[in-house]
């Protein structure tokens, strides 16, 4: 059973989940089916990924009770606004074939569009209506979060951010901790970069007799973050979940965090827009 962290609304969130940004020709239903069989209970998708139907088919076919699986999805930039956000949630419910969403996030703040407050107000109402269990955001900065809370008085349960040893985001993680917001890590393995071959990662893997991927995911856990590694490979899915039988030393944590060099794709939420 994967350990959980309690969100500010009382929800128990597994401390690791499966990402579902699709690879070329991938059968997402098969990927998620394998993951559920391996013990994943948190699945991260988005309207924009076009993987909600595959996630939904896997959940429907699984012997794991629906109530034991937490599904996260996200509202894309093209559907910011009160009515649009509600439309997005309805579309995701249909795509997933479920009657509630466990965690709904705003995918990107799009501050130049400047409509994320209305989007958040819709999500607050969706939560009150029982359509959504928990509400959060993604790619929000501290300034975006400050404005959201000052204008609505509702603190997001989660902020899902780019987080990996190249970009440890210590200041934003500290802000989250001060405000009762759980940090989720996207691209936790540095998707496709050379992160897993970095010397501090390789040395820790050798010292603990685990893989480089397990070292990096353990680094997230020990930071108090919730990583969402994506793997279509059942063996690597299992490996990624098997990170609770060892502990990185303080020196190893410092060395891995010392790989800091910045964002992988330069997606600064103050200017990056995705619709
Ligand atoms: N909110 C947002 O804006 C964003 C959210 N996300 C979320 O985060 C998830 C994860 O991020 P993502 O960008 O997919 O990339 P990850 O950092 O999770 O890396 C995924 C890649 O790593 C490989 N991999 C997985 N496990 C291992 C392992 N143990 N050893 C070596 N390689 C491994 C996978 O290949 P293989 O499949 O062959 O194992 C895949 O190519 C996404 O799927 C999405 O759900 C991502 C980006 C932005
Ligand atoms: O995958 C996501 O959720 C995104 O927001 C993408 O833009 C992601 O950042 C990506 O694909 C980067 O190339």
TrEMBL record:
Superkingdom of origin: Bacteria
Matches recorded under Gene3D superfamilies: NADP-dependent oxidoreductase domain (3.20.20.100)
Coiled coil: none
Keywords for this protein: NADP, Oxidoreductase
Keyword set includes Oxidoreductase: yes
Alphabetical list of Pfam families matching this protein: Aldo_ket_red
Domain NADP-dependent oxidoreductase: 16-259
Family as reported in the entry's similarity comment: Belongs to the aldo/keto reductase family.
Protein name per Swiss-Prot or TrEMBL: Aldo/keto reductase
């Amino acid at each position: 059973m994967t350990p959980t962290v309690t969100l500010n609304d009382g929800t128990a969130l597994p401390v690791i989940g499966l990402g579902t940004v699709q690879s070329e020709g991938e059968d997402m239903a098969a990927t998620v089916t394998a993951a559920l069989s391996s013990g994943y209970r948190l699945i991260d998708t988005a309207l924009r990924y076009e993987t909600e139907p595959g996630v939904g088919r896997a959940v429907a076919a699984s012997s794991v009770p629906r109530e034991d699986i937490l599904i996260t999805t996200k509202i894309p930039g093209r559907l910011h606004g009160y009515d649009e956000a509600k439309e997005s949630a309805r579309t995701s419910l249909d795509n997933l074939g479920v009657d509630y969403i466990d965690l709904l996030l705003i995918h990107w703040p799009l501050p130049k569009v400047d409509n994320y407050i209305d989007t958040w107000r819709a999500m607050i109402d969706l939560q009150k209506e029982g359509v959504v269990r928990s509400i959060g955001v993604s790619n929000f900065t501290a300034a975006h979060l400050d404005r959201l809370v000052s204008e609505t008085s509702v603190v997001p349960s989660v902020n899902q951010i780019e987080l990996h040893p190249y970009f440890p985001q210590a200041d934003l993680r500290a802000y989250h901790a001060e405000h009762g917001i759980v940090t989720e890590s996207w691209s936790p393995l540095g998707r496709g970069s050379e992160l897993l071959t970095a010397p501090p990662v390789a040395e820790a893997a050798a010292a603990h007799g685990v893989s480089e991927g397990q070292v990096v995911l353990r680094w997230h856990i020990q930071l108090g973050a919730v990583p969402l590694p994506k793997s279509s490979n059942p063996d690597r899915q299992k490996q990624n979940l098997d990170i609770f039988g060892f502990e990185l030393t303080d020196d190893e944590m410092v060395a891995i965090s010392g790989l800091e060099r910045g964002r992988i794709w330069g997606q600064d939420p103050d200017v990056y827009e995705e619709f």
